Amino acid sequence: MIRSARVVVIGGGVMGTSIAYHLALAGVEDVVLVERDELASGSTSRAAGGVRAQFSDELNIQLGARSLEAFARFKQEPGRDIDLHRVGYLFLLSTPEDVARFEASVQLQNDLGVPSRMMDPAEAQRLSPLISTDGLLAAAYSPDDGHCTPESVVHGYAAAARRHGATVLRNCAVTGIETWRDTITAVVTNQGRIVTDTVVCAAGAWSRSVGAMVGVDLPVEPLRRQIAVTEAVPDLPPKLPMTIDFSSSLYFHGEGPGLLLGMSDPDERPGFATDTHDRWIPRLYEAMERRAPALLDLRRTGGWAGLYEITPDHNALIGEASSCSRFLYATGFSGHGFLQGPAVGEVVRDLYLGRVPFVDISPLSVDRFSADALRPEVNLV
């Protein structure tokens, strides 16, 4: 058991392993990552794997674009094949209001270097031939987006963090954080006590309880989301984009010879349950019938449930606590944490080192809620 550390990172998903990797790569000694279970065993392993820069919020666009660059070179550094498919994201739009919002988002994305564009329904159907264009007004598409394998990203970061001197402790649950006045002095785990003055909370849906250990309210709620996998699809286009019917949130992309698909469930209530159920299936089929009736003939062969980590404005919490010295946090990504993991690892590294990050992250501080400065994201899946 490690008895002391310069930095303790709590959480072994994409966010925690990316942060540990970037800290170790920067030469920070004695970085310790603690994960209460196995690496990627929380929300990361249950993600759909989508990666994109098509957002409505400038910060999210920048974090997404920066992460896409990192995913593209992941096989070289940190050095692992993540099965990246840059097939694009295709948002299908059925109301004038959504078309107007996405036109504004595309303009902002273009201003920031993202090659997204609007297209008509016929072109959208050429890209994603499983859809119906009935009632479709327009679509938004970016060829740089796509999907990859979340577990491979986590294990790639963890292995590289170890190579650069970090320690990764699995099956090591944090039970408390000791402080003296407003200063952290140690992290207490079921494997022993780690003396440290710095903690990074990257615990995803479980972050609120970690923040409470040092008196910091991280307003994160867990919300179950389900995914289904289908049998093989005959003549499935090899470049099928991640396709999202924005009005219903139905989405699908290629998964081997079949499809991975899902959508939100407005009847779901916050909680930590990750068992699967079929209560969402009638609504799923209704969305398929309207936008992608070809999917109705496919047999489901599997699926799973995972947790979104939701904040009040559906935007991330990234920063350093003002009430407790050297308590940093990166959580509450509300469904787009996996795709922002590489960039956020860089940002947290710079916050720790006192550097200026590549993007001003201060609007994502938890303090925005007490200041009534919410920062809503429109392009949610």
TrEMBL record:
FAD dependent oxidoreductase domain sequence ranges: 6-351
InterPro entries in UniProt: FAD-dep_OxRdtase, FAD/NAD-bd_sf
UniProt cross-references to Gene3D superfamilies, sorted A to Z: D-Amino Acid Oxidase, subunit A, domain 2, FAD/NAD(P)-binding domain
Entry-linked SUPFAM superfamilies: FAD-linked reductases, C-terminal domain, FAD/NAD(P)-binding domain
Top-rank taxon, per record: Bacteria
Keywords: Oxidoreductase
Protein name as it appears in the record: Sarcosine oxidase subunit beta
